[in-house]
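Thread: quick sanity check before group meeting

JM: Hey all, I'm pulling together slides for Thursday and realized we never actually wrote out the predicted structure for the chain we discussed last week. Dropping the sequence here so it's in one place. If anyone has concerns about the input, flag it before I start.
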Amino acid sequence: MSKHLKLNLSFYCLLLTAAFIINHLENRLFHEHLLFIVSFNIIVDIIFRFINSNLLSYGVEKIITSTIFRIIFSLIFIFLYKYIFDQSIPIFIINFLVVYLLFIIFEITILLLNLRHIK
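JM (edit): ok, ran it. Output follows.
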């Protein structure tokens, strides 16, 4: 198992565990579907890592394409949630953005580790 795969799996497990624990707390700062938000972001992250590993384009194009599609799918997810559930949407959006930013920061960290490895 590669170092990056272990790092990704540990990040996913850490987020799922934190979301599971937070989900059982009675707190108004976290949305009741936080586990759903984290699961969606993990699925999107796995899909785009698979797509990026199989694309034949250059590194920067892969990253930009992945980021654009991630934003589009995230907006679709938020609109579908608003359409289906229509409850406490501001807290949902804030929680979604925090989890989304965690994934972006993690992705940037992995890219910097790859650059350091190349150097």
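AS: nice. Residues 3-118 form one domain. The chain has one domain: 3-118.
JM: adding both to the slides.
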